[in-house]
Design goal:
The protein has 20 helices and no strands. By secondary structure, the protein is an all-alpha fold. The chain has one domain. The longest helix has 41 residues. The radius of gyration is 23 Å and the shape is globular.
């Protein structure tokens, strides 16, 4: 990574268009190769590394700032015109964002490696109970689906009374994909006859998520099933099949989601309008409405690539800072630990995406983000990298150690916390306050609460084991 940073610094001095084009092509490819190789070797060395935030930090950086950085240069004409509507970029601005990404990734991984040296790898301190995979998985499925269907879905489709849903409640819906992973792992380890049940839960969750136009939730559920499959062993063939399946799923979902959102906005004036029945009709009409796709949304616009390209948004954030318009996104850090039920007027920090979108000349009907690296720059310029990326690396490293401890010891009830840690790992496309610091408090609170339940479960298991001989006698 250091070589890549030096590469950008040296060739970045050039003004020749061909040299800039060469630099902006070779650089992202080198980033993909470097991070991809380290992630693959890590997973092949130990499948548990699939669940550490540092693994997903590498993968998401590859997707959004490796492959995505090539879109402004090599996307179709319609794709490039579409992403330039947000903020048109020059070759020099693309190079600046690529340098920012490489330097940020380097500093983040440097901070992580320092933390990994300071904190020893976890050891097994309790025997694994495969049966607990089933019971925790079923419990999470019941709770997660109840919260998602009764609270989160009505809130998502605008039937929540206009009040913000507490972050804790929103995060409880993540129990659903967690349960899919746990039950998939249990099924493949102990009881393959349960596979139809797992597939039913997976398809039900994906179907509901499609109707809420949440392609991210669909992809996460599918990814949990795929990771359950990969937990039995990682090789090149399985990685290829899994990667191809996820890419095809995303390629299918993006145009459907874009069409559904546009059609919902046309019919109801907002993407949050309509009942689930209305949304089913809208989604179904995608396959039969020949005139539903406008000139900018047709086959020429590569929907998948417009979604993973953050170069324009990152360049805009850098442009704002360089123009004297600094970010104040971290000023509300102090409100994060305060639960909303204790302070009803607590500022909605999630509005930052709409604010950023509005600054770019868009509307507040949707949100956008420049990614963690550009967010750090928007706050403090180049000094933002050591100020914020070093601590980020420490956080990722500590959460990675925690994830391995949970997996090695089979503390499955704590797996939902691991899931939150992973989410923080692959949200390099977001904001620091909403996608790192905010969830960090939820991770700490979640661990504290669940570890108490875990202790009670361990105590109950020991009691049953101790009383078994007496009963048999």
């Amino acid at each position: 990574m250091l070589t890549l940073v030096v590469f950008y610094l040296v060739l970045g001095q050039a003004t020749d268009v061909d040299i800039l084009m060469f630099t902006n092509t070779v650089g992202p490819v080198a980033l993909v190769g470097t991070l991809g190789l380290s992630a693959t070797l890590s997973a092949m060395r130990d499948t548990n590394n699939l669940w550490v935030p540092l693994f997903w930090f590498r993968i998401s950086t590859i997707v959004y700032f490796g492959i995505g950085s090539l879109v402004p240069l090599y996307g179709s004409l319609a794709t490039r015109e579409y992403i330039n509507l947000f903020f048109p970029v020059t070759d020099q601005q693309i190079l600046d964002t690529n340098l920012l990404v490489a330097a940020s990734a380097l500093i983040t991984l440097l901070g992580a490696n320092v933390a990994l040296v300071l904190f020893k790898p976890p050891r097994r301190d309790s025997p694994q109970n495969i049966r607990s995979l089933f019971w925790v998985g079923i419990s999470f499925a019941i709770i997660g689906f109840a919260v998602k269907l009764l609270l989160v879905i009505p809130y998502t489709i605008g039937q929540g009374g206009g009040e913000a849903l507490p972050g804790v409640v929103l995060n409880l819906s993540s129990l659903v994909p967690v349960s899919i992973y746990l039950l998939t792992r249990y099924t493949l380890l102990a009881k393959r006859k349960m596979l139809p049940l797992v597939l039913f839960l997976l398809l039900m969750d994906m179907g509901v998520s499609i109707l809420t136009y949440s392609k991210g939730a669909v992809i996460i559920s599918a990814m949990m099933f795929m990771l359950g499959y990969l937990s039995q062993g990682v090789n090149r063939f399985r990685i290829l099949i899994s990667s191809a399946s996820m890419f095809l799923l995303m390629a299918l979902l993006v145009p459907i989601s874009d069409y559904a959102r546009n059609e919902s906005g046309r019919r109801f004036g907002t993407v949050y309008g309509g009942t689930l029945s209305d949304r089913f009709d809208i989604t179904q009409s995608y396959f039969g409405d020949e005139n539903s796709i406008g000139p900018m949304d047709g086959e020429q616009k590569q929907g998948v690539f417009t979604r993973i390209s953050y170069t324009n948004a990152a360049a805009f954030a850098m442009h704002l800072y360089n123009s004297g318009i600094k970010s104040h996104t971290l000023e509300n850090l102090w409100v994060l630990p305060i639960p909303r039920f204790l302070w009803e007027e607590k500022p909605a920090i999630t509005d930052i995406g709409m604010d950023f979108n509005e600054l770019a000349g868009g509307s507040r009907s949707s949100g956008s983000a420049p990614g963690l690296f550009a967010d750090a720059y928007w706050n403090f310029g180049w000094w933002g990298l050591p100020i914020l990326m070093l601590p980020l690396g420490f956080i990722y490293a500590l959460m990675s150690r925690y994830a391995l401890w949970v997996l090695i010891n089979g503390r499955w009830i704590l797996f939902v916390v691991v899931m939150l840690c992973i989410r923080m790992g692959f949200r390099v496309d977001g904001f620091l306050i909403t996608d790192i610091f905010g969830p960090l408090f939820i991770v700490l609170a979640g661990h504290f609460c669940l570890v108490q339940i875990d202790k009670l479960m361990i105590k109950a298991a020991k009691h049953r084991t101790a009383s078994a001989p007496a009963l048999n006698a």
